[in-house]
Amino acid sequence: MAVDTITFEDVKEAADRIRPHVHRTPLLHSATLSERSGADLWLKAENLQKTGSFKPRGGISAALQLSPEERSRGVISISAGNHAAALAFAARMAGTHATLVMPETASLSKIAATRGYGAEVVLVDGRRLMESMEEIQREHGQTFIHPFDHPQVIAGQGTVGLEIFDDLPDVDVVVVPVGGGGLISGIAVALKTLKPGIVVIGVEPEGSSVVSQSLAAGHTIKLERFATIADGLNAPFSAPTSFALVQRLVDEMVIVSDEEIANALALILERTKLLVESAGAAAVAALVAGRVPAATGKTAVAVLSGGNVDLALLGQLVTPTATVAT
After folding, report:
1. 305 catalytic residue (yes or no)
2. Which domains, ranges and CATH numbers included, belong to the chain?
3. Which pTM does this prediction carry?
4. How many CA atoms lie within 13 A of 117 on its CB side?
5. CA nearest to 294, candidates 209, 180, 199, 208
6. How far apart are CA 277 and CA 310, in angstroms?
């Protein structure tokens, strides 16, 4: 598959491939979050997915397509955490070995989870993730599975969109956290085929907005500086396939602050009893902060992309305001 050729059929085939190996995560309603956002708001709880994020959908989709020769050589990738754990999980399931190159600043819990699934973890300077990975790959010959631009990864992530539409065909707006763009591009392929009039909106943190900046530039870029509490959205570069899909299919990108993300994380925990990581709270942050006027008065879904919050940091992020689940 070439750039910008991920199709609805690719997503459906990925769904068939991964169905026995992933959870079909619930779509949950919150009266409180609906009131706060001005939308009839539903939450796609990918924080309840295997390994704690949406990432196994794409990782398994790609791992199951490896040839016997590729499996014998193993796979390699870069990740701040969730893709690392997911690919380690997928590789073990597919009978191959995974090497994950992670930044030295990665969450200790995500490093431990990745190793727990049997992968080799190599910690490097976060500014040299890709270069370090390429050096290792040249020496050992593993197959590179890109964290957000591999066609089978994008197709696998698109299965989130299939499930949203299946559970809520009246949905008008879907709001998705964006790091590199693999999740939103796959979701957009699925939903824009099933319901062309649907609005798909991406959310990035203000300190790490490579997709928004790429759209403004008209081409993929690499950030020299990037920082956010939402480490799962801290992509240092955009990439061709996912970027082309975002350009064509995503209606709008919006920006939220780290403070708004932290407030949304606390609100989700207190009102729905769902524990999400900072990246997983970004879509709700945008909705309750009024960044998504297209959702006002409409049926909307916020994707809770992951729940792998570092418990050591949780107390710093959460300020209690309520305890009633609604």
Report:
1. yes
2. 8-53+152-317 (3.40.50.1100), 56-148 (3.40.50.1100)
3. 0.93
4. 31
5. 199
6. 8
* Structure token digits, residue 237: 């570069």
Query: d(Cα 294, Cα 78) in Å, to the nearest integer?
Result: 35
Asked whether 99 and 122 are in contact (CB, 8 A), the reply is: yes
Q: Which amino acid is at 237?
A: F
Which residues lie across from 256 on neighbouring strands?
Answer: 205
Instruction: Judge contact between 44 and 67, C-beta under 8 A.
Output: no
Choose the catalytic residue: 44, 50, 55, 192. 55
Structure tokens, 271: 């009102």
The question of whether 110 is a catalytic residue gets the answer no
Active-site choice (77, 238, 242, 305): 305
Contacting residues for 87 by C-beta, under 8 A, at least 6 apart: 55, 59, 63, 75, 77, 79, 98, 100, 119, 145
Spatial distance between the Cα atoms of 299 and 171, rounded to a whole number of angstroms: 5
Grouping H, G, I as helix, E, B as strand and the rest as coil, residue 43 is: strand
* Exposure b/e, 226-239, CB count within 10 A at least 16 = b: bebbbbbbbbbbbb
Which token pair is 5?
């050729």
- Distance, in Å, from the CA atom of 146 to the CA atom of 223, rounded to the nearest integer, reads 18
pLDDT digits (tens), the chain, 326 positions: 444 479 999 999 999 999 999 999 999 999 999 999 999 999 999 999 999 999 999 999 999 999 999 999 999 999 988 999 999 999 999 999 999 999 998 888 889 999 999 999 999 998 888 999 999 999 999 999 999 999 999 999 999 999 999 999 999 999 999 999 999 999 999 999 999 999 999 999 999 999 999 999 999 999 988 889 998 898 889 999 999 999 999 999 999 999 999 999 999 999 999 999 999 999 999 999 999 999 999 999 999 999 998 766 666 666 554 444 44
